[in-house]
Specification:
heterodimer; A: 193 residues; alpha+beta; Ubiquitin-like (UB roll); five-stranded mixed sheet; 7 helices; 16% strand; elongated; B: 573 residues; alpha/beta; Monooxygenase; two-stranded parallel sheet; globular
Chain lengths: 193, 573
């Protein structure tokens, strides 16, 4: 049956594609949906792109104009817009979390927005790029190995802590500034803490 | 013939709490109608356009508590344009002018303005309770008016509203003399709050039973509030992030341990999972747990938490709990009555959320389950049949398979049989939402078996008018029918026009009904408002082309004719 071929195609995509992600990621789903809907509907009108009816429904128009389609299907999935909005980037509401980053020996400091990074790997990569250095591998027992640098931060209590010990969320909420320590001072923090 | 003096009748009617009972009683005879209307204090209006404020007040002069619902349900999913209607101002205005002694106002899906809130706060001296659900149109300035002027305010409950946050000092507007608060919920506010003002307000609200904070309230403030309010029954945390080794956290643990009365927990709008053990002591007593906004809690931590909650009756969670997690729920929460599993944001995650497995496990482990909202990736007929057998007590069954036209992945069949089993087994089913690949057959089953069904939601389902006709014919108690993207047209719409006067409303969008069909219906049934929503300009250009399909139609019975506040793009035929 023609329709079952379509469904099998659907399934292979669906297993890995389902998401409430940002617009643009929904395309394959919508395209399949529109073709399925067209199979079901008797009227040929709906298959037309926008058509003579001037269908104002975003779904049909956008579905047919394939690759660039960014719109979600209006009304589906049936999730309250309040809930949908609260799941989308919360950073829209909050201002960035800018902290100073200093590196021992560097002539001036930099500032980065902690909110932009997804985790430690992301953050340290960015710092490495910014200062043109390598920080090394983190290990709980021995800190950062393989480099003369150690990333540290000042927390809410004013203490200097090694970056990476606490969960990311806790780090971002307690970090006041970053300091890349170098040389012997770094060794002190990096090992045997 | 009246065997009882009116005072006795009135006294008897006092025991009738439900609206349905009171409505029934008022239909018995004229004298009962009269006694009932003069003694009625609480009125529920399911569609604010079915009646107008003047007639309401005329009939129920002793009105104290009013519940109003505005926009159609599908407005929740962005199907209804912004200025469609549902304004509460005229109601507040009318009640103020006619001296109603309003104490309680509960609104759902209505447009509330700051002017309305200001008028409300100044017009009713005994005003005690404001509950707004899924409303919009107001700002924190309106809340400031409520806080300032309602001297005996007991309840301010804001659930999932779109509130423009002016970052003002609305919390500081509660006067020092205000000590009457029993319930405060501002979780949906996006902005900062004055923490000091909040702490002071909490300190003087010794009757406080229910508190739900927004994300801007940090754990430190929570700890201070809880230390002073161990009598809380219902708590929604704001931000739950702290260093577990800190003094603040230690104090929080101590404070929570003293909160022996907390039965309902929610919030965790921001959360550091390592802080969760602080709430384990109260988990034992929880009957309600809402973690549906706690994106920061991942599957494994959710499971750890749930293991402590043996008495849960109501659970709202995100699908990151997974099928395995639902298995844990099934083995831990034997008292579970209501479960809602919402989709979480799967940014690049790709891991499967929940499937039919989780639902089957729940149905096997939780025999008291009667209310379900389940977002999943896939569902099978076999699973639904098993669920129907395990849980014949469903009153609300809402299944949302994210891909709305997907068949049973094992058999490649539509899900007609599965839903058929549900309606056949669950004789008390009042609300049903369908999804997945569905043919006319499922509607045949619904019409045949769903005798108590009051609300049905349909999307991308059915093959022909027969489907809709089965439902209209068979479901005698149907009150609300909402359909999107299904091939039902004029034949289905027009076969039994009298049916719509027995229902509250019908919504049809992206179906096959035409302008001509709607016009015919409107002509035959003058006591129905048949509204067409035109967002494009096409209909404007050719208003006489009856063959054009109507994109969105909403019809409802009304005693007061076409509404006068409809915007340009809404035509009442």
């Amino acid at each position: 049956m023609e329709s079952s071929v379509v469904y099998e195609g659907d399934l292979n995509l669906k297993a890995t594609e389902l998401r409430l992600g940002l617009p643009g990621t929904d395309e394959p789903e919508k395209q399949n949906m529109s073709s399925v809907r067209n199979n079901k509907r008797a009227s040929p009108d709906m298959a037309e792109d926008g058509g003579s009816k001037g269908d104002s429904d975003a779904k049909n128009g956008d579905c047919e104009s394939a690759p660039a389609a960014k719109a979600q299907v209006v009304g589906w999935p049936p999730i309250r817009s309040y809930r949908k909005n609260s799941f989308q980037t919360k950073t829209e509401v909050e201002t960035g979390m800018y902290v100073k980053v200093s590196m021992d020996g560097a002539p001036y400091l930099r500032k980065i927005d902690l909110k932009v990074y997804k985790g430690y790997a992301d953050l340290l990569q960015a710092v490495e790029n910014m200062f043109k250095l390598t920080i090394g591998e983190y290990s709980e027992g021995e800190g950062y190995k393989g480099s003369e640098y150690a990333p540290t931060y000042e927390d809410k209590d004013g203490d200097w802590m090694l970056v990476g010990d606490v969960p990311w969320d806790m780090f971002t909420s307690s970090c006041k500034r970053l300091r890349i320590m170098k040389g012997s001072e770094a060794k002190g923090l990096a090992c045997g803490v | 013939m009246n065997y009882f003096p009116e005072e006795v009748l009135e006294h008897v009617f006092d025991f009738l709490k439900s609206h349905r009972d009171r409505n029934a009683v008022s239909l018995v005879c004229k004298s009962w109608y009269r006694v009932e209307r003069f003694s009625r204090e609480r009125v529920f209006i399911g569609n604010c356009y079915a009646i107008n404020p003047d007639r309401l007040i005329e009939r129920f002069p002793r009105l104290r508590s009013l519940t109003l619902k505005g926009k159609p349900h599908f407005a929740d999913f962005n199907l209804v344009p912004h200025d469609w209607g549902g304004f509460v101002y005229p109601w507040i205005d009318a009640m103020a002018k006619r001296g109603v002694n309003l104490e309680e106002l509960r609104l759902k899906r209505m447009v509330v303005s700051d002017e309305g809130l200001e008028l409300l706060s100044r017009s009713f001296v005994n005003f005690k309770s404001l509950i707004l659900v899924s409303c919009e149109g107001f700002t924190t300035d309106g809340l400031a008016a409520i806080a300032s002027n309602c001297r005996f305010l007991r309840e301010l409950d804001l659930q999932e509203n779109e509130v423009e946050d002016h970052r003002g000092q609305w919390l500081s507007c509660f006067p020092d003399s205000c000590t009457s608060l029993v319930s405060l919920n501002f979780a949906c506010l996006k902005g900062e709050v004055n923490l000091a003002a909040l702490e002071r307000l909490m300190a003087r609200s010794c009757n406080l039973r229910s508190l739900k904070l927004n994300h801007a309230v940090p754990l430190d403030t929570l700890q201070k509030i809880l230390a002073q309010a161990p009598q809380l029954v219902d708590l929604g945390t704001g931000s739950f992030v702290s260093d577990p080794d800190s003094e603040t956290f230690r104090r929080l643990r101590t404070a929570i341990q003293k909160c022996a009365s907390i039965k309902s927990l929610s919030g965790f709008l921001e959360v550091a999972p390592c802080c969760l053990p602080a709430i384990y002591p109260i988990c034992l007593n929880l009957t309600t747990l809402n973690l549906s906004y706690a994106q920061g809690i991942h599957g494994s931590e959710l499971i750890k938490l749930i293991r402590h909650c043996g008495k849960l009756q109501r659970l709202w969670i995100l699908d990151c709990i997974g099928d395995k997690g639902l298995g844990v729920v099934a083995s831990t929460c034997k008292e579970l009555q209501e479960l809602r599993v919402f989709p979480s944001d799967l940014h690049g995650d790709g891991h499967a959320a929940v499937t039919e497995e989780g639902l089957v496990a729940i149905s096997a482990g939780c025999p008291k389950l009667h209310s379900l909202l389940y977002f999943c990736q896939q569902m099978t007929n076999a699973a639904l049949i098993t669920v129907a057998k395990n849980c014949p007590n469903f009153t609300r069954f809402r299944l949302c398979i994210i891909n709305p036209t997907i068949p049973d992945p094992v058999t490649m069949q539509p899900l007609d049989e599965g839903f058929g089993a549900i309606v056949q087994s669950c004789k008390g089913l009042r609300r049903l939402s369908l999804s997945g690949l569905l043919t006319d057959q499922v509607f045949l089953y619904i019409g045949m078996y769903a005798e108590q069904l009051e609300m049905l939601s349909v999307a991308f389902a059915g093959d022909s008018d027969k489907g809709m006709l089965c439902v209209l014919n068979g479901c005698k108690k149907l009150k609300k029918l909402e359909i999107m993207d299904s091939p039902f047209g004029n034949l289905a719409l027009l076969t039994d026009v009298g049916k719509y006067e027995t229902m509250r409303s019908l919504w049809m969008s992206s179906c096959e009904v035409t302008l001509g069909g709607c016009k015919t219906l409107a002509k035959k049934m003058p006591r129905l408002n048949v509204e067409i929503i035109n967002e494009g300009d096409q209909m404007e250009a050719t208003p006489d082309d009856d063959r054009q399909k109507v994109e969105k139609m909403y019809l409802y019975r009304s005693l007061v004719g076409a509404r006068r506040d409809a915007p340009d793009f809404v035509w009442t035929l």
